[in-house]
């Protein structure tokens, strides 16, 4: 189980959220690109097209792409909603009442926000197996708080290779909305 062991990720996530008075966040599987990350972005897109549960972002880009947090970016294994977004979605009780499956755990933050955990461990969620139901359920609830205006989480192509661009970033952020959105068809 991911909550136990020498480094309890659960305790770490909640401690960070409370200490930093988190506005929004997520935790799950993600890529850690090397220092020359631009060079590796085509591979990042290739992996994203194979796994729904893989989180793709560059923290500096995310702050810009969401226009100063005028909405959340998305969901993952842990989805953090600060008090503003929790209230916007009807409050903690409303969120609790919509996530009744015992696979969900909801933790209250000192600030009035909540952290939603979808299952006992993060999911890679291979595209070939379909949308991951737990992430889809969380997405359905938090979708009204998601940003609608996004910019690319990738840099421009250097030699014609495919990378995240505005269109692909938009599709990626909506990947849990309905079947068939992701992976994208390429021209």
Write the layout of secondary structure elements.
Elements: H1 9-20, E1 24-27, H2 37-48, H3 59-65, E2 78-81, H4 83-88, H5 92-98, E3 104-108, E4 114-118, H6 133-142, H7 166-173
Antiparallel strand pairs: 1-2, 2-4, 3-4
Structural class computed from helices and strand pairing: alpha+beta
Mean pLDDT: 88
Q: Which of globular, elongated, flat, extended, rod-shaped describes the shape?
A: globular
Strand content: 5-15%
The number of E-state strands comes to 4
Q: Count of helical segments?
A: 7
Distance between the termini: 42 Å
How many domains make up the coordinates? 1
Radius of gyration: 16 Å
Biggest sheet strand line-up: 1-2-4-3
Q: Show unreliable segments.
A: none
Main β sheet profile: 4 strands, antiparallel
Please provide the ordered H/E string of secondary-structure elements: HEHHEHHEEHH
Helix content: 25-40%
Architecture overview:
The chain is α+β, with helices and mostly antiparallel strands and 187 residues long. The chain has one domain (9-173). The chain is 33% helix and 10% strand. The chain has 7 helices and 4 strands; from the N terminus they run αβααβααββαα. It has helices at residues 9-20, 37-48, 59-65, 83-88, 92-98, 133-142, 166-173; strands at residues 24-27, 78-81, 104-108, 114-118. Strands 1-2-4-3 form a 4-stranded antiparallel β-sheet, with helices on both faces. Strand 3 (104-108) and strand 4 form a beta hairpin.
């Amino acid at each position: 189980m991911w909550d136990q062991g020498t480094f309890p990720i659960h305790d770490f996530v909640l401690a960070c959220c409370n200490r930093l008075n988190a506005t929004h966040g997520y935790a799950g599987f993600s890529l850690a690109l090397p220092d020359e990350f631009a060079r590796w972005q085509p591979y990042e897109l290739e992996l994203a097209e194979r796994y729904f549960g893989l989180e793709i972002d560059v923290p500096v880009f995310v702050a810009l792409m969401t226009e100063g947090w005028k909405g959340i970016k998305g969901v993952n294994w842990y989805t953090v909603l600060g008090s503003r977004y929790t209230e916007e979605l009807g409050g903690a009780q409303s969120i609790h009442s919509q996530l009744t499956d015992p696979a969900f755990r909801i933790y209250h933050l000192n600030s009035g926000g909540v952290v939603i955990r979808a299952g006992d461990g993060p999911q890679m969620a291979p595209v070939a197996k379909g949308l991951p139901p737990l992430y889809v359920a969380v997405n359905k609830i938090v979708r009204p708080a998601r940003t609608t205006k996004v910019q690319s989480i990738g840099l421009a192509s250097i030699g014609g290779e495919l990378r995240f661009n505005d269109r692909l970033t938009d599709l990626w952020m909506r990947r849990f909305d309905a079947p068939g959105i992701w992976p994208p068809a390429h021209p």
